[in-house]
Amino acid sequence: MFRRSGLALALTTTLVLAAACSSEKPRPSTASGAPTSTTAAAGAVAGNLTVLAAASLTDSFGELGKAFEAGHPGTKVTFSYDASSSLATQANNGAPADLFASADQTNMKKVTDAGNATDPRVFAHNKLAILVKKGNPKKILTLADFAKPGVTFVLCAAEVPCGKYGAQALAKAGVKAQPKSLEANVKAVVTKVTSGEVDAGIGYVTDAKAATASADGVTIDDQYNVLAEYPMAVLKQSKNSNLAYAFIDYVLGSAAQAILTKYGFTGP
């Protein structure tokens, strides 16, 4: 009787432990913030995904998202683009989204400090560039030319990464000229230049590359330039964290990095 009871107890214990293990949710690895290969395979990598993404990622993420969907049948990726500062506020206010891709660490930190995202991963870098009217009629070749009489330019607002970076670059170059206006995001800077409202603006290398049909890009010397770091993290309110982690894995992979490089970004 003792041996049978012991065997029954052992079997019961084994079944309970197996059931408990099978009910556990996939967890991100501590090293990378992404699921392990085992949990990724076990998780439902399908469904809808919403990404809050910095405005400077518009063109590259548009292509990257389509490529991700093609490689992951049954998925749909939607992007919401804006200044990283605005997106950080949305994320902290519980916006229905799965991922936040910021153009700086400062705005990502606002979200992680609030406990609304964890384990951000840097997936790209960017540099500043001067955007000028096509043909560069004012002959703007350096940041110092912003101070020339009759030259008008715009920056992003101070709380926006491109505005913070632009102000830092001007300070490094010793330029004290004042912008005509401060824009809500980098795409608004590009629009002001390409529409002819101003002579120049400070955006990113990626923006200058994207706007070659209607504007020219002028390189900013490295001694005055600023390197922008782009982190991405899964949001606390995500309804599909398995898919969100799979998207981060994809963005860090060679295929997605090739797309980002094509648009002017450099690797993490």
Q: How many β-strand stretches? A: 9
Cα-atom radius of gyration: 24 Å
State the low-pLDDT regions, or none.
Answer: 1-43
Helix content: 40-55%
Distance, first to last CA? 65 Å
Class inferred from helices and paired strands: alpha/beta
Task: Please report which band the strand proportion falls in: under 5%, 5-15%, 15-25%, 25-35%, 35-45% or over 45%.
Answer: 15-25%
**Integer average pLDDT:** 88
Characterize the main sheet: 9 strands, mixed
How many DSSP helices?
A: 10
Helices and strands, in order, run as HHEHEHEHEEHEHEHEEHH
Dominant shape: elongated
What is the fold's blueprint, element by element?
Blueprint: H1 2-22, H2 37-42, E1 47-54, H3 58-71, E2 75-82, H4 84-92, E3 99-101, H5 105-113, E4 117-133, E5 153-156, H6 161-173, E6 181-183, H7 186-194, E7 200-204, H8 205-210, E8 215-219, E9 227-235, H9 241-252, H10 254-262
Parallel strand pairs: 1-2, 1-3, 5-6, 5-7
Antiparallel strand pairs: 3-9, 4-7, 4-8, 4-9
Helix pairs in contact: 3-10, 4-5
Question: What would your notes on this structure say?
Answer:
- 40% of the residues lie in helices and 23% in strands.
- The chain has 268 residues and is an alpha/beta fold.
- The termini are far apart.
